[in-house]
Amino acid sequence: MAVSFAWMFGETKPSGTELLLGVLIPELSSRTIKQAVGVVGCIIMPHNVFLHSALVQSREIDHTKTGRVQEALNYYSIESAAALLISFIINLFVTTVFAKAFYGTEVASTIGLVNAGQYLQDKYGGGLFPILYIWAIGLLAAGQSSTITGTYAGQFIMGGFLNLKLKKWLRALITRSFAIVPTMIVALVFDTSEAALDVLNEWLNVLQSIQIPFALIPLLCLVSKEQIMGTFKIGSVLKVSC
C-alpha cells in the first residue's frame, strides 16, 4: 500500500515548498469539513483503540518489575508513533496526488473511489507501470488492512469484553461474518449508484470520527486511576490535553 501510493506521489512531482507550507499552516475550506472529519475517522478508527489495548497483552512481562513494564511501554510508544506516522505519510501521498491533478477543476466533484483510477490514468498516462494498476493495488491493500484490523478487534472484544468462550475457528467465522455480510448487502444495494456509494463511504468515515470519544474517554479514565495503573497512571495535563 505504502509503495503504491508513494509511486504515484513521485509520478505527480508536487512542489515540496507548497507541500511543507500546507502541512505546517493548513487551510480548511468550509466545503471540505466533512472530508477532513472523515480523514480523522479513517486514520484513527475507534476499534483500533481496543485492538492496541489487546495487542499490548501479547508481550509477556513480569508486572511486578517496574523496569520491565517501562521498557514494554517504551517499545509500544515507538510502535504506535511509527504506525501513525506511516499512516499520515500515506494519506499525505494520496491527498497530494489528487490535489495536484484536480484541485479547482470542474471534474473534482465527480471523482470517487469507483472512477478515481481512471481519472489518474487519463491525467498521468501509462508509463512503465500504468498508474491505474498502481492505484488499484494500493486501494486493495488499504481495504485489506482496514478489514484485518477490524476483524482482529472484533475477535478480541468477543473473547474478552463479552467473555464468549468459543473455538477460534467459530469465533473467527462469526466476526468475519459481521464484517462481510453488511458489506455484501451494501454492495448489492448500491450496485447501480456509484455516487451514492461514495457518499455512504464519506459518512461512514465521519461516523467513525464521532465514535472515537466513546472509545477514548473510558480508556483515559482507566489509565488515570492509580489503583489500576499504579505509578504508570497518566497525569492530569495529559488527560485534559487528550
TrEMBL record:
The chain crosses the membrane at residues 81-103, 124-142, 178-197, 203-223. GO terms for cellular component: vacuolar membrane. GO terms for molecular function: cadmium ion transmembrane transporter activity; manganese ion transmembrane transporter activity. It is a multi-pass membrane protein. The keyword Mitochondrion does not apply. It is found in: Membrane. It comes from the Eukaryota. Belongs to the NRAMP (TC 2.A.55) family. PANTHER family: METAL TRANSPORTER NRAMP3 (PTHR11706:SF109), SOLUTE CARRIER PROTEIN FAMILY 11 MEMBER (PTHR11706). This is Uncharacterized protein.
